[in-house]
Design goal:
Layout: H1 15-18, E1 21-23, E2 37-39, H2 55-59, H3 62-66, H4 82-90, E3 105-106, E4 109-110, E5 112-117, H5 119-123, H6 126-138, H7 144-152, E6 158-164, E7 171-177
Antiparallel strand pairs: 1-2, 3-4, 5-6, 6-7
The structure holds zinc ion (2 copies).
One zinc ion (ZN) binds near residues 33 and 57.
Amino acid sequence: MNAADLPFFRYHPDPVATGAVREGSEECARCHRRTGWMYTATFYTAQDVSGDFCPWCIADGSAAEQFDGDFSDTYGLDGVGMETVREVTRRTPGFRSWQDPHWLVHCDDAAAFLGEAGPTELARYPDALDRLRADLREDGLRDPDELERFLACLGEDAIALLFRCIRCGTHLAYVDAS
Ligand SMILES: [Zn+2]
Ligand SMILES: [Zn+2]
């Protein structure tokens, strides 16, 4: 089965590119099928889960339901509807990061996670860079030279996590540091 046949996740449109889903011949811990694709990122549950899930058991909510778990935390999902929160946390692949991963919000909806971005990728998204600069200034990085140096070094001790608003298309990012 090729990647085009994977279920579509509007809040995580290319989980193979982000590394959240990879090719793998293991059995899914929920449906026990070997679909050829396995989920690799976070799942928070108090129960024992032996192995990983196939993307289909994420998409239909059955993995989250059976193990009463979440793929992502609700942190960051302020001002979006309960249905959206459930879709992101229980029916969308999460992602790994150094700090607790969280979802960005734009136009009152969760944004789509596009993956990690270094300086080269970020240069293509001035809208995301503007927001990053504003956030970093707010976090105390006031010296403009220092701020630009920090952005130029993304990919080393810190990385930007890139999102795109599914409503207006604006790109957003936040910094994840080790
Ligand atoms: Zn499955
Ligand atoms: Zn928007």
